[in-house]
Amino acid sequence: MSDDNHQQDLATQIENHHRSGEFDKALELSERAVESNPVDLEACGSRWELIADMFPEEEAGKRVRPEIESVLGTHPETPEMLGTAYWGYMGLPGRTKNVPNSLYDKMLQYPRTKIYQAALLGLAERSQDAHQQWHYYQRVIDECTVSDVSWSSWYFSTHEDMLRLVEDDRSLATDDSLDELIDRLLKAHLSLCQETQQWFGWAYTEAVKWRLKFNVRLDKALEILERAETRLEEKEEQTWLVEHNKRSVEGACKDIARLRGEIYLRQDRWREAHNELVANAPDFLESLWTRFNESTINYLYMLGRSAEGIGEWEKAKRYYANAHFAPTPHEEGRAGLERVYHQMQRGATDTFEAFLKDTETEYRIREDADREKIRQNFIANRLNKKATDFRLETLQGEVYTLSEMSGKVVLLDVGASWCGPCNMAIPEVKIVHERFREVDDVVVWGINSGEAPHQVQKFLDEHQPPWPMLLDSRREVSKAYQIKAIPFFILIDKDSNWQYSFNSSNLIDGQPLIWLIESLLSD
């Protein structure tokens, strides 16, 4: 076996043991990386990533920093060596703050390379000043191309980062420079889609959304949507959309039409806007989240505005009410209702407050009916699969076995500390836990998928979940229940059958989990 193959095999072995949760074995194996001569850079990178996962922040830093410094001091300076050292520092808590200025200086001596781009992006991330961040991002798109760095996702993201800066500080860019930046974003995004075989409509619609956000050249936004529709007629686009993005052609067409309706609305083309928005409205009753999230409330407001524009006062009243009386009201919903009130035929003694009260009463009836439809849809779709048994431990060594919970309804919350949506869902799961805290027939367990003990402890310290957290370092539960994304909620009935799954953090007031548990308790 050649040295190159041996080195490649070592890095792969470390990563395989790491992914399998065999942390100690991976650590022992990785010792060879720093002992090899010449230094095995790829294996070193895998080792430093492993250490950052295995150990608490302070200990990880104490282990990794001296090794990086040793590599920098003894290994011939090459782009590969500088890149390995850079990502070693970036894997530690604090990311860019760990990277010495001297390393940035060396990386910037290799223009039009991966490490050059990484240095500019690292300096932008480290900066606290928006104008300085803009400067570094501008250098990335001016001095690098996708073909130079082969990191099309990063090149595309740089344009997005610049646009986000403009969201916070509009003085950073004129309308003309924004127009150009969004065009460059679209070009970079299309390159990413081509490289990863993602449907081009993703790039087109995102560019249109940015134009709507800044109200820049909406005529050009309509042209972009035409290009999206033309591309959608092609077989390749449909294949990528359906097979790679798990979307439907019909759904993509509706996405495009909804954006066109929003553009028409901005242009005061009321009838065209209303027709597009009504004909292509999303299914608001998929879940409580889809019914009450910010995007839906804004869509309902747009429906009201377009109905008002064509003089359909009753329709406008209904849409505005749906936007105004929602749990998180649209900020302009009440004003819309007031405009409608003054246009409708009212009795001489009627007041706006009386009109508002009657309108709310009508809305509450609709809301209750919507909630019940959503509930019925959720509880009707049972899986009826035999639950796979497992035996896992907590950090304290307490053993939990699923089969011993026969006769109880079990809720499993599968996640990880690095997963933002998992953390966002914790307060909602606490609502569920509190709702059934005194019900003996309900058990709530958290399952940490694939993390080292210190990471789990940090999560517990931060979020204080009142249910047991089980360690699944080898991801046995994820494999058994074919979990492809987290958070993932599994509900098991009293007969140890897997009945429901919910693979999202989009919970509202603990629903739909509370509905599903209540349904299983009623069996």
3D architecture notes:
With 523 residues, the protein is of the alpha/beta class. Among the domains are: 1-107; 281-380, no CATH class; 385-521, Glutaredoxin (3-Layer(aba) Sandwich). It is built from 25 helices and 8 strands. The chain has helices spanning 3-19, 23-35, 41-54, 57-74, 79-90, 101-107, 114-126, 130-143, 146-149, 152-168, 175-196, 200-214, 218-232, 235-244, 249-266, 270-279, 288-292, 294-309, 313-324, 333-343, 352-380, 420-435, 453-463, 476-480, 513-521; strands at 385-386, 391-393, 399-401, 409-415, 442-449, 469-472, 488-492, 497-502. The strands form 2 sheets. It has a 6-stranded mixed beta sheet. Strands 2-3 form a two-stranded antiparallel sheet. A hairpin with a 4-residue loop joins strand 7 (488-492) and strand 8 (497-502). Helix 1 (3-19) runs parallel beside helix 3 (41-54), helix 4 (57-74) packs antiparallel against helix 5 (79-90) and helix 7 (114-126) runs antiparallel to helix 8 (130-143). The longest helix is centred in the last third of the chain and has 29 residues, at 352-380. The radius of gyration is 27 Å and the shape is globular. The protein starts with a helix and ends with a helix.
